[in-house]
Amino acid sequence: MLKEWKLSAAAPEAVAFAKELGVTKSLANILWNRGICTKEAAEVFLHPEKQPFYDPLLMKDMDKAVARIIAAIDGEEKIVVYGDYDVDGMTATTLLVHNLRALGAKVDFYIPHREKEGYGFNLTALQGVADDGAKLLVSVDCGIASVDDVAAMAGKLDIIVTDHHLPGEQLPPALAVVNPHREDCPYPDKNLAGVGVAFKLCQALWQEMHGQDYTQDLEIVALGTVADIVPLLGENRKIVAAGLKRMRKSSFAGMRALVEVSDIRDEELNTGHVGFRLAPRLNAAGRIGSARKGVELLLTKDAAEAESLAMELDMLNSQRQTIEQEILAKAEAELKGEDVNNMPAIVVAGENWNPGVIGIVASRLVDKYYKPTIVFSKQADGVCKGSCRSIDGLHMYEALKACKEHILQFGGHSQAAGLSVAESELKAFKEAFEAVAEATLTPEDYVPKVKVEMELAPEEITFDLIDELAKLEPFGMKNPKPLFGVREIRGMAPQVIGKEGQHLRFQVGSAKAPVTALFWNRSDYAGIINSEVIDMVYSPAVNEWQGNCSLQCMVDSIAPANGERIFPEREQLVDIYKFLYQIQQQEDYIPYTAEELTVDFCKRGQHISLYTMSLGLRIFQELSLLRMDMEENCYYLPKASGRMDLESSPTYRRHR
């Protein structure tokens, strides 16, 4: 899928700004284009450790929450922390339980089962907590939407809600509702994760009970903050920068075991390690097992138990990957035969798909098709549980809100959400959601964008530049790793690498000074590298191997250069069709990937780009001249009848 470059402007102020900060013009330009335009702002951004934490009591209802918790500790009342089953919820639960115990509280925790109970509060669980003798329940990372459940427990259980999800029209009638997104909350930083809000509660408790500034346990806060993909600005940036440094030598035995089982060899961890190694293993507990395992791992003080639990989560993660691939294949099968290119949104459903994995499947479909996507699991009780992922341009929570007459319950953020729909309402919901997407999104919104800081040839990368860029870490939402672009280049010496041959390594730059480029999970581009002129977006990096350091490009995306972006007119479409017909005559089937077909076409003496071939295949599919064999995973040509009416193809009409 082609990504449109959003090339940052060269800020005229960058030269003077660079001198003022004592940095290179390149770094100054990046800072300026990210809205960091004063020396003071740059100092805080480049040195987040210098930024003080805001007073936690600025958060609305924090004083009420602290007073009630202190009373419970003094009165030796049983407190239960009620968390969510994702990494944010697990880390928030761990953090609050750990600190309440340190403050002398009698405390236990409860996390609902994702599949059996679903997200947030449920009345059965709340009643069970009260029946077990708890007098106070404190939620973390959930509860903001549980108005009726909280009301039903009035007089039976005191409830404090701490959350960071967007509130609905009505707040739950809890003793305290601590959420920076409350309209009446003056707290200056609205971007905290659920674990971040729990951290502010811990800060307030230590401050009020012992007059201490609490800045411990930041590795736990950082883990949940990165995993929940909140903006890494403000307090989140300070938390993550400090927390990453503590992970490998954490005082939490479970954190150390998690790092070890994830096979992270770098001395200091980065946000990529957290997002792609640590968080998936913890998440696996909540997705296909019990999230309690994740909290037990992080809370245990026994190194042997930590090692055992970490290995168990590692195995669960492997199972999760297998289940994910199976559901993704089924979801793709649901879409085969559909005109996905002209759909405003993707809504697919399957019988008893694992509800803990469908969110990842939705993300994979967004990556492939770049459309708002909802994946539903049809349950035996007639309720369809769905997980949503969006694209820029469509606020998922607001879109669901517009369809609420068809929804049993929903909640979430602008880019991700969850919902439940009665199976009898599924068709009506799908139509309503597609109508909202169609009315909201423009054709431009369906083109994925990639922000490119500047054009930079690979041979211009230096070790000094990479050292400068490192000052922008930690990278994450709202502070992405800087990407650079180079146009009109040819790759050299492509090699397929990886245990399963899934990755691609090739050379770029000049023949005298080649630079290695790595493109993860795109070994199918090997033939394209040899045959096409390309535009490439990448991040510069250092490869360390056996004590030697070399420069390399980590490829974000490859696109045909402008001269390769040729739309296939009738004559070329005829050539492509004849080529496909010859393959079918010789092999009885046609390979499923456009990449294979592009390389094969070029080998027969005529040059064609992947761009042109892909459009030709799409046009033939729209005209029903090319179909997919779902069982054999290949194309085939049905018997042709009459002349091609190209105007019947939406893709061809749009081009015309």
Notes on the structure:
- With 656 residues, the chain is α/β, with parallel strands linked by helices.
- It folds into four domains: 4-45 and 450-563, Beta Barrel (OB fold (Dihydrolipoamide Acetyltransferase, E2P)), CATH 2.40.50.460; 56-313, Alpha-Beta Complex (inorganic pyrophosphatase (n-terminal core)); 337-446, Roll (Diaminopimelate Epimerase, Chain A, domain 1); 566-655, Orthogonal Bundle (Arc Repressor Mutant, subunit A).
- It is built from 23 helices and 21 strands.
- The strands form five sheets. It has a seven-stranded mixed beta sheet with strand order 13-14-18-19-17-16-15. A five-stranded parallel beta sheet has the order 3-2-4-5-6, sandwiched between helices. It has a five-stranded mixed beta sheet with strand order 7-8-9-11-10, with helices on both faces.
- Strand 16 (503-509) and strand 17 form a beta hairpin.
- Helix 8 (194-210) packs antiparallel against helix 9, helix 9 crosses helix 12 (271-288) and helix 12 (271-288) crosses helix 14.
- The longest helix is centred in the middle third of the chain and has 33 residues, at 303-335.
- The radius of gyration is 27 Å and the shape is globular.
- The mean pLDDT is 93.
